[in-house]
Amino acid sequence: MAESVHLNRRGVLFVLSSPSGAGKTTISRKMLAADPDIALSISATTRPMRPGETDGVDYHFVDVDRFKTMAADGEFLEWAHVFGHRYGTPRDRVEDLLAAGKDVLFDIDWQGAQQLYQEAGPDVVRVFILPPTMDELERRLRARGTDSDEVIAARMARAANEISHWDGYDYVLINDDVDGCFDEVRAILRAERLKRRRQIGLIGFARDLIRSVPEADTKL
Ligand SMILES: Nc1nc2c(ncn2[C@@H]2O[C@H](COP(=O)(O)OP(=O)(O)O)[C@@H](O)[C@H]2O)c(=O)[nH]1
Ligand SMILES: Nc1ncnc2c1ncn2[C@@H]1O[C@H](COP(=O)(O)OP(=O)(O)O)[C@@H](O)[C@H]1O
């Protein structure tokens, strides 16, 4: 039997953004559970921990002074103010995951997506998730049961602003049916992994194929 061919490839930096409540946490969890080759970037944040969250798993919960020191020391790939708190992507974990051959999933807002794209350009794939309607978005925020009326109103007020950045993304999906949306996200990841420019060693592989034909007419 022929030897199987394995070419290394550049890792994908896969960004999922959406207005709060549109479903990006749900989709992220499904992706991480379904695919061992992608791992989550764990952000640092100054916002308080919510019930059910674990420090170091959902976020690294830090105070403002610590966050400022991390930012000043260049520890973040990107950071931004969101809902009156600071959120940032620690550089180390992302670099370690990429070095280990993993793709990295980012649950960050449009400001983070923009900064990451400036840092890492074509390695970044930006996916934006829209709710089917604003009424459904509000219904999901209420159904989640994690926020007071006041916080929900603030999230709805911010949602229009977040949505207005939809055209800064490579893909825009509508999360009507969660399984359908998840399938689309997986299809995007699969296709992006197969892109020619991510296949390190493809030039050499094709060259060796051509050279292995003694009579090859490479001028054709
Ligand atoms: N720029 C940036 N945004 C982040 C980061 N981590 C989380 N966010 C965004 O901050 C927003 C608020 O997140 P969170 O407080 O967990 O509330 P959520 O709306 O329930 O997801 C979401 O839009 C996240 O995508 C980060 O490291 N950088
Ligand atoms: N397609 C969908 N249909 C109905 N409910 C959904 C759908 N996607 C997510 N939800 C629910 O909506 C709520 C908000 O989703 P979540 O993933 O927490 O959003 P986000 O991370 O974008 O704030 C959760 O209770 C989740 O179970």
Automatic annotation (TrEMBL):
Subcellular locations according to the entry: Cytoplasm
**The protein's Enzyme Commission number:** 2.7.4.8
Q: Which UniProt keywords apply?
A: ATP-binding, Cytoplasm, Kinase, Nucleotide-binding, Transferase
SMART domains according to UniProt: GuKc
Domain Guanylate kinase-like: where?
11-190
A Pfam family hit: Guanylate_kin
Query: Which enzyme type, at the first EC level?
Result: transferase
Keyword Transferase appears in the UniProt entry: yes
Output the Gene Ontology cellular-component terms.
cytosol
Q: Which family does it belong to?
A: Belongs to the guanylate kinase family.
Purpose: Essential for recycling GMP and indirectly, cGMP.
The name this protein carries in UniProt is Guanylate kinase
Q: Which organism is it from?
A: Sphingopyxis panaciterrulae
